[in-house]
Amino acid sequence: MASRLRSSFKEPEIELFVKAGLDGENIGNCPFCQSLFMVLWLKGVRFNVTTVDITRKPEELKNLAPGIKPPFLVFNKELKTDFLKIEDFLEQTLAPPKYPQLAPKYKDSLNVGADIFAKFSAYIKNPHKEANKSLEKALLREFKRLDDYLNTPLPEEIDQDSTEEVVVSRRKFLDGDRMTLADCNLLPKLNIIKIAAKSYRDFEIPREMTAVWRYLQNAYARDEFSHTCPAEKEIERTYASVAKKMS
Description:
By secondary structure, the chain is an alpha+beta fold. The chain is built from eleven helices and four strands; from the N terminus they run αβαβαββαααααααα. α6 (116-125) packs parallel to α8 (181-201). The protein starts with a helix and ends in a 7-residue tail after the last helix. Mean pLDDT is 92; it is low at 1-7. β3 (72-75) and β4 form a beta hairpin. It has a four-stranded mixed sheet. The relative contact order is 0.15.
């Protein structure tokens, strides 16, 4: 019976459309595109990726998704265009036991980095020198919040029967030692912040935030993240017109 079920299982046909880079072919700068790319890779499902040059959308894509900017997805010939709905759909459709669950165990893992990109955007777009310090402090507060969360042991890291107290977490990612949707959402944004803030504001994540750096190093060591990142020049080019010169 089990072998019959396995043989009758048909892999879904999936095509992910993501923003193209400067050359119109490679992956462009879009954290939402990268997030879905990571989700599909982590699910272990077969899928195709098509880059879309939004400056000159091919005729066939105009018919497929008129007026829609990437990311969007075609799943068994059905178009999906809303990023959050796509993420939920993939988690519910590509479910255990065939595919891994990616939803984090802890709600705080999803919430901890929720404001960091907004603080970065305010900081990088600010043209007023007098406001720069306060905006930078606001960004640093979010990084400190993230660092504290990554340093705080999760409940499963604490052995109630052990005499040794776990003071600092050793986990690799937000929700434990496996990547979850929380990482798929946050890591593409952290990569953008790290590159753009250094290029245009000479800002670096403080080295004393060791948990954040540990987190990033663990992430860059994974193909699902490092191989879906856009080239640094893509990020720098995107923010060349966004990062305001201060006066």
